[in-house]
Amino acid sequence: MAASIDPLGVAKNLIEVSVLKTWHESIVPSYPDIQPSKQSPFQYCSNINQKLVLWTGDITTLKVDAIVNPTNENLSVMSPINQKIFEIAGPSLHRDIRDEIGKCATGESKLSKGYNLPSRYVIHTVGPKYNPRYLSAVENALYRSYRSSLLIAGEYKVRSIAIPTVHLHQRGFPVSEGAHIALRTVRRYLEHQSCTLETVILILDDTEMEIYKRLAVLYFPRSNEEEAYAFENLPEDIGNEFGEPTIKERSIRIQDKIVNSEDEKTFTKSDSAAFRAFSKMAGDHDIARSELIQSKSKKTSQLQQNAKRYQTWLKLARTLDTKDIIKLKALYKSGVDQYGRSVIVFIGNNFPAHLTDLNKAISYYAYLMDDMVDNDYIAIYFHTLTNAEQRPPANFLKLVYQTLDPKYHKNLKAFYVVHPSWWLKWSFWSFCTFTAPELKSKLQYIDDLKDLLKFIPRDQFSIPQYLFDENRKMNGNSVTTPNAASQPDEL
């Protein structure tokens, strides 16, 4: 609902916080039965979920105690949100910035009155410019922007606050990466330091909304089942107890002292050296054997849990409405290769991970492929025209790979990656090194489709025409579409 302005500059058509739908009231999808190995750091809490609102609309129409104004160090940036805020607030806000506030450092926040705005306060904050070379510093600055805004809200006893995305598009911050920081910072604040704050409204555009809905599940699970699913899909860095990004390379493990301060006084240098040498000796063999047995038992338990999860995926697929997944035509069978092995094609550009229910997709794809991978097969992944937001989270891919039935790994004979980027090659190296070493010998990169057609007969190879067109642009050759490939067959 757009706001109009009366002759005094005050916004009309105002929206009460009470009419907004909270995250607690949103629809929770069905999830497979997952038994996490330990407690999730972001537990299901209906009271916290009732305080979060994801909303698309005009921030100046909200009747809240405070709104956040994302800006630059001089408080002079003029994005559409800034322009609307200053237009409604009137010249007094400009005067406050000029005479009272002055400048604001990156990561900091400052408060002013709202004047003609329906909000009592405006909290001005400066997000960082995105630079992947200094990623740790950039992420930390973004965290401080959100947290300092919330701390000011707490200081002034604010009960409701509206926050647009602080990681401004003009500053180049990827939406998904910024969303992780925003959501977990809000979650941690509501957990530990919110005494008066009753509502946090995150103001999003349509694209941001889809991304935030997908990621909010990780930090604000709406059921015990969703909490278990979220735990398996959390990113590696979930921040500290306040949501602040952590840097593993700078973490120092401080071991417990073996002796107390009084005993230390009686130790000579030679005593200390002897004690350290003794402490490095091999432990008791019975203890080592016990630990080995426990390790094997834990591995067996994990395999059983993965098998149970995979069977749940198969069962879940029979109950889901998967028409939206089928329409994507991202995964399908494309004939056989020169050795008669089934060819499975996955087209990255056809799979908008940030807009897709990943749990539904993997259940459906596992159900379709279950019979086919009983025999030898090869897989082809097309990275052509795929961007960062279309890729599923790395932790999700790790979970999927570890959960797939062992026959997927055993019967896969070759995995071709077409038109890989440098980033993708690095990602696969990391994945093969730490998660799937058995995949490394089967992985082959294909920069030109003519090389792929050496392994697969043309009359068996079916991909969309635009992939051939892009290959021609990239490599300058005229690889043509096989007649049989005009329409990919569904699995």
Automatic annotation (TrEMBL):
InterPro entries: CRAL-TRIO_dom (IPR001251), CRAL-TRIO_dom_sf (IPR036865), Macro_dom (IPR002589), Macro_dom-like (IPR043472), Macro_GDAP2 (IPR035793). Residues 321-475 form the CRAL-TRIO domain. Pfam families: CRAL_TRIO_2, Macro. PROSITE patterns: CRAL_TRIO, MACRO. Transmembrane segments: none annotated. Residues 39-220 form the Macro domain. Gene3D superfamilies: CRAL-TRIO lipid binding domain, Leucine Aminopeptidase, subunit E, domain 1. Belongs to the GDAP2 family. This is Macro domain-containing protein.
